[in-house]
TrEMBL record:
Signal sequence extent: none
Entry function: Catalyzes the condensation of pantoate with beta-alanine in an ATP-dependent reaction via a pantoyl-adenylate intermediate.
HAMAP family registered for this protein in UniProt: PanC
Assembly and binders: Homodimer.
Pathway: Cofactor biosynthesis; (R)-pantothenate biosynthesis; (R)-pantothenate from (R)-pantoate and beta-alanine: step 1/1
UniProt xrefs under Pfam families: Pantoate_ligase
Alphabetized GO MF terms: ATP binding; pantoate-beta-alanine ligase activity
Compartments in which it is found: Cytoplasm
Remaining remarks: The reaction proceeds by a bi uni uni bi ping pong mechanism.
Gene3D superfamilies with a match to the protein in the record: HUPs (3.40.50.620), Pantoate-beta-alanine ligase, C-terminal domain (3.30.1300.10)
Keywords carried by this UniProt record: ATP-binding, Cytoplasm, Ligase, Nucleotide-binding, Pantothenate biosynthesis
Biological source species: Mangrovibacillus cuniculi
Gene this chain is encoded by: panC
The protein, known as: Pantothenate synthetase
UniProt main location, coarse: cytoplasm
């Protein structure tokens, strides 16, 4: 595995490999790798000749009261895991390398961001599309792999690629879960023992909601959401921030549930905010 911290070196390495006709798969991450990230790499390994992973905690996507400084970091651990799973090139730039000067251009996302997590994280997805655009231009991958745990992010990035005609295919990969259903996340390490025991209720509630939708596939979505919010046991520790239904990937409200939809939830614990979702297709009644 090759490790590089500079944009120019990474470009030169990839250019040489592409001259040999190799396809490139890309897995962008913010590090503190877990099985979800490694699953993205495994799928990329199956489909591409060369797998590039980036580890970069992007300051542009953290708000003033969010956890940039406390976001978990352990490069030695990440390096070992990346090597073990078969990453070919590991890109580990500094903030100064990625953003050496004040930008002359800023990016603003217009759609798919005023709901779910984006509703309370103004500017977050502007930071996401900025760093993803830069990484796509640096790596020039054939396919980029993203986990569907953050389905809103996948929807926004797909919109970015479609709107700006990036020559990269976005490959969404299903959420990797613990045995009890909890979605794997770098933030799970910040749960207390009691919170960790309670957290699987997020996915359990989403599955209940999915069953309710499948039984009543033309029901007003707000009514189902309210029903499930009433059933959600906030327990002793977590606070339900939202549980909502939208079309996917458009992330628009629906009066009637039909086509591809997302049911998504967020729960705030003391030191960690967890998100999860299920995506399904609702068939129209004849």
């Amino acid at each position: 595995m090759k490790i590089t911290t500079t944009i120019n070196e990474l470009k030169n390495i990839i250019r040489a490999e592409k001259e040999n006709g190799l396809s490139v798969g890309f897995v962008p991450t913010m590090g503190y790798l877990h099985e979800g990230h490694l699953t993205l790499v495994s799928q990329a390994k199956q489909e591409q000749d060369l797998v590039v992973m980036s580890i970069f905690v992007n300051p542009l996507q953290f708000g003033p009261n969010e956890d940039f400084d406390s976001y978990p970091r352990d490069f030695e651990r990440d390096e070992a895991l990346a090597r073990e799973v078969g990453v070919d090139i590991l890109f580990y730039p500094s903030v100064e390398e990625m953003y050496p000067k004040e930008p002359t251009i800023t990016m603003t996302v217009q759609k798919r961001v005023n709901v779910l997590c984006g509703k309370k994280r103004e500017g977050h997805f502007d930071g996401v599309v900025t760093v993803v655009s830069k990484l796509f231009n640096i790596v020039e991958p054939d396919v980029a792999y993203f986990g569907l745990k953050d389905a809103q992010q996948v929807a926004v990035i797909q919109g970015l690629v479609d709107d700006l005609s990036f020559s990269v295919e976005i490959r969404p990969v299903p959420t990797v879960r613990e045995d009890d259903g909890l979605a794997k996340s770098s933030r799970n390490v910040r749960l207390t023992e009691d919170e960790r025991k309670e957290a699987p209720i997020i996915y359990q509630t989403l599955l209940k909601m999915q069953k309710q939708v499948q039984k009543n596939n033309m029901v007003i979505s707000d009514e189902i959401a309210q029903l499930m919010m009433n059933e959600f046991d906030e327990g002793k520790h977590g606070t339900l921030e939202y549980i909502e239904i939208y079309s996917y990937p458009e992330l628009e409200s629906m009066k009637e549930l039909k086509g591809k939809i997302i049911i998504a939830a967020a729960v705030q614990y003391k030191n960690a905010r967890l998100i999860d979702n299920v995506i399904l297709t609702v068939e129209e009644n004849e």
